[in-house]
Amino acid sequence: MSDETRVQELRKLFPVVGHWTYLYNGSIHPCARPVGEAMRAFLEKWQNGGEAAFFPAYEAFGKLKEKFAKLIHASARNIVVTESTTAAINLAAQILRPKPGQNIVVNDLDFMTDTYPWLVCHPCAEVRFVKSRDGKIQIDDLAKQVDGNTAVVSLCAVTVGSGYRFDLRAVHAVTRSSGIPLLVDGSQALGLVKISVNDPPLDFLATTVSKWLMGPAGVGLLYLADRYLDATPPTAGWLSAANVGDWDVRHCRLHDDATRFQGGLPNLVGVIGALAGLELLEEIGPEFIERRVQLLTTYLLDQLEKIGVTIWTPRAASERAGIVFFRPPNPDGLHAELKAARIYCGAFQGGIRLDPTFYNTVEELDKFLAIVRRHVARCAT
Ligand SMILES: Cc1ncc(COP(=O)(O)O)c(C=O)c1O
């Protein structure tokens, strides 16, 4: 089957295409039919069976950890299911617990969730911002901020604005010699870009499932390296305990894996949707997704360049993933025009962001580009 035929088949899984030209998949990914069906089936079982619905759902919780672990070349022992990326990053921060005199290296392309845990909850540590240049972080600039007192280097594998994709091996070359922990927010990368927690070795990998992993909002995932599996959990509850079956309220014997960081019952509807999203991703195949997204983003960048708008996203394919960001004149006006034409994309930081994915087509992009072309010509007169 040709890629074009496959795209037409896959579009049937996404009812959103009947309502919008949806080009904001890195914000909230629209719900695919199998994901919606899985969640609805659980609700039905819960409605009719109460606690009886819990047991298969709890199995989905284990399977979700396994599927995610497979995606990132880890073991399910090292995965915590959280409520969000934010919760995952805060958990990592609480485990690392920087001391006075230490510093945290972040950068100005990070998302707020990547810097606020340090700024707000760990004010004893200095937060050092690496300055971006032309939508990219230069590794030399990052290296200059790192020293013997660095508690962690934290970054987004793919940044949320310009869409810059880090070379994680190059970052690791900076942190390796001093054994500085590396915390990666994979929210804009996983599902699009291959990330193995072994190459380069990562200490923490946090994500939401609600973007390129095609799950619902309200579920996050955290990978922690083996060396943190015996850490004291900053919060504890019945699921943290290996001896939960003893009903021993006086003694908690913590699990010897990442389960010790689970407090209480997770968001089961979300877990079921997250598992269905990962299953769909596996079925479609990351190679197909990567190929389609590269084709669409490259086409967009070529055409936007011809129109003559300022593009923030790096041009080299190895330095970007699913995000294309540009700054047209009067971006809010353009955004309103696009919305009126039922084209969904983002507008922030003085620009427009588009995140096309495998079910989008070149025809959809042409519809978008025609409006941009008209808008830019009008602004020039
Ligand atoms: C890089 C990145 N991290 C995290 C998030 C979302 O975080 P959360 O799952 O805590 O809502 C986003 C959403 O826009 C993001 O782009």
* Helix residue percentage: 25-40%
What would CATH call the class of the largest domain? Alpha Beta
Number of helices: 11
Strand order of the largest sheet: 2-8-7-6-5-3-4
Per CATH, the architecture of the largest domain is: 3-Layer(aba) Sandwich
Indicate the mean pLDDT. Answer: 97
The main sheet comes to: 7 strands, mixed
Shape: globular
Report, as a whole number of angstroms, the end-to-end distance. Answer: 47 Å
What name goes with the CATH superfamily of the largest domain? Type I PLP-dependent aspartate aminotransferase-like (Major domain)
> How many domains make up the coordinates?
2
- Proportion of strand residues: 5-15%
Structural class: alpha/beta
Contiguous runs where pLDDT drops below 50 for at least 5 residues: none
- Which ligands does the model contain, each kind named once? pyridoxal-5'-phosphate
Spell the H/E element sequence.
HEHHEHEHEHEHEEEHHEEHEEEH
Q: Find the CATH topology of the largest domain.
A: Aspartate Aminotransferase, domain 2
Number of beta strands: 13
Rg result: 22 Å
